[in-house]
Write a structure and sequence with these properties.
five-stranded parallel β-sheet; alpha/beta; 5 strands
């Protein structure tokens, strides 16, 4: 099962929705003491805990090779209060289709996008 570490550009509520609605192992960077941390620190924490980093910072994580990276662009998600729920749904669906994801970049399909 894939565990997630949600980066700071996404709502902290995403991790809560993943845990409560989908029974997924999820944490937000704010919950684990990584508020405003460097991207390398976020990747290192995810690597150490066996988590996939969920971020939209493609360029900032491009050099990371030994961690699962799940890239989602905020512009492809519903805005406002529905964003956490929308992202949680995307991540749960992606995890169902990728129970043992390879290390490196993943781009889950977001409903309503090409």
């Amino acid at each position: 099962m894939t565990a997630f570490l949600i980066d700071e550009m996404f709502p902290a509520a995403t991790a809560e929705v993943l845990r409560e609605k989908y029974s997924r192992d999820a944490a937000h960077v704010f919950e684990v003491g990584l508020r405003a941390a460097e991207d390398a620190e976020v990747a290192a924490a995810a690597r150490a805990d066996g988590r996939a980093v969920v971020t939209e910072n493609v360029a900032d994580f491009a050099a990371e090779r030994d961690v699962v990276l799940v890239f989602v662009l905020k512009k492809n998600l519903r805005a406002g209060g529905a964003q956490a729920s929308a992202l949680a749904t995307v991540l749960d669906t992606w995890a169902q289709h990728n129970p043992r994801p390879y290390l490196g970049a993943h781009w889950p399909r977001v409903a309503g996008t090409a």
